[in-house]
Structures are given as C-alpha cells and as structure tokens.
Amino acid sequence: MSENTAAPSAQDKRIRVDIFSDIACPWCFIGKRRFEKGVESFEYSQNVDVYWHSYQLDPSLPDNYDGSEAEYLSKMKGLGQEQIMQMLDHVTAQAAGEGLNYDFENLKVANSFTALRVLEYAKQHGAGNEMKEALLSAHFEKGLNTGDEKTLLQLAGQLGLDTDELRTNLASGAYAEEVNADIAQARELGISGVPFFIIDRKYGISGAQPAEVFANALTQVHSGNVQGA
C-alpha cells in the first residue's frame, strides 16, 4: 500500500487561535461572544482550535476589595463617579447587545489570580472553554465572588471537575507558574490590553471587535494556509 502524500484539503486545515484575557475584564466577555459569532459564520468553524491564556488587568488588587466596581474604577482611573457610571452603562449596553446581562451593582471586585489558576486546571482537564464562560458569567452576571476559593470550587464542581483534587492543588500553589508564564508571554508580545487574539501565531486582533472582523480574519488566514500548502 502506497503512502498518501497528498496535501491536506481545505476542510482539513486547522487554525489555532490564542486568546489572552482576564476573567475580571468586561470587554473580554463581550469579545468572547463576538469571536464566537465570528467563528460560527466562518465556513470551516469546526477547524478552529482555541487556546485561552491568562492576563491580569490589575495584579495589585486584594483577593477581596471592600467597595463597589464604580468605586474601584473611580479610584484606579482617577475619574468622577458620574463619568464612571456613564462608562459602566455603555459597557452594559454593549454586553446586552451580545446577549449578556451585566450587573455592575452587585459585582464583587476581586483579584483574578486564583480564578485564573482554576482556569488553568480546567484547561488541563479538557474544560477550559466551559470554565472561562463560567468564570466570566459568575463575575459579571451573577454577582459571585470570583476571588473566593469556595465559590471557585463550586463552579468547578458544576462542570464535573474533581474539586477535592483541585482544592489540594490550589493549596500547594499549583498553576501559579502557568498563569505567570502566560502573563510574561503577553508582555513579551507587547500586549498591554485585553482581549487580544492571535490567529495562527501571525495575525493579531486587539479588543472586542465586531464578529465580522474575526470571521474575515479567519477566512484570510485559512485561504493563505490552503494556498501555501
């Protein structure tokens, strides 16, 4: 039997997408939805492989911040409450346009590092995308404390992950190295804001762009890959 040396067909060409984002980033959830819509309209959507990478907008945040999101942003950005509320209203409206129900009034401001470690555990157990969705929804829609280990374990359990193993791993400091490696990689790539998407390691898209931007980029990269085969 002779070996098949034919080049892969267009249907077989896979596209890697690396996404840097923070679970405490409102535009990251919006960007996730828009990216997903872009993938859905891409002809070879089944060939897109997504890899989530950690990023922290504010590593200096305590595990639990004693104040509202508006108070935190006002202090961090040096802006008045009225201007902050206008910003939050705008983001809420943009989120609603993607079917997301943001609740900034009940949002629990918290450092995202432990949540990102839980995400890393989920990634290593085949549930990265599901955990990313759960963490973003918990933070922005459900008013859950994503800096609280008990809450994070409950979210993991709802996805069928081994919470006893995860609890033990968190206590040992596991997954901090992987999270820090992602953050360092983002720095090396010059990424200073998220979400940031890298398609096939060569095409970068910054921000929560419209779905068509993602669909067009995927189509362009795929076409180039097929022609270059």
Describe the overall structure.
- This protein has 229 residues and is an alpha+beta fold.
- The protein is 50% helix and 10% strand.
- The chain has nine helices and four strands; from the N terminus they run E-H-E-H-H-H-H-H-H-H-E-E-H.
- It has a four-stranded mixed β-sheet.
- Helix 1 packs across helix 9, helix 2 packs across helix 3 and helix 4 runs parallel beside helix 6.
- The longest helix has 17 residues.
- The radius of gyration is 19 Å and the shape is globular.
- The N terminus is likely disordered.
Which secondary structure elements does this structure contain, and how are they paired or packed?
Elements: E1 15-21, H1 26-40, E2 48-54, H2 69-77, H3 81-96, H4 113-124, H5 128-140, H6 149-158, H7 163-171, H8 176-188, E3 196-199, E4 203-206, H9 211-227
Parallel strand pairs: 1-2
Antiparallel strand pairs: 1-3, 3-4
Distance between the termini: 24 Å
Tell me how many strands there are: 4
Low-confidence stretches: 1-7
Report the principal-axis shape: globular
Helix and strand succession? EHEHHHHHHHEEH
Mean pLDDT: 93
Q: Helical content, roughly?
A: 40-55%
The helix tally amounts to: 9
What's the gyration radius in Å?
Answer: 19 Å
- Placed side by side, the strands forming the largest sheet appear as 2-1-3-4
In this structure, how is the largest beta sheet organized? 4 strands, mixed
Residue fraction in strands = 5-15%
Helix vs. strand class: alpha+beta
Task: Name the features.
229 residues; alpha+beta; disordered N terminus; 9 helices; 4-stranded mixed β-sheet; 50% helix
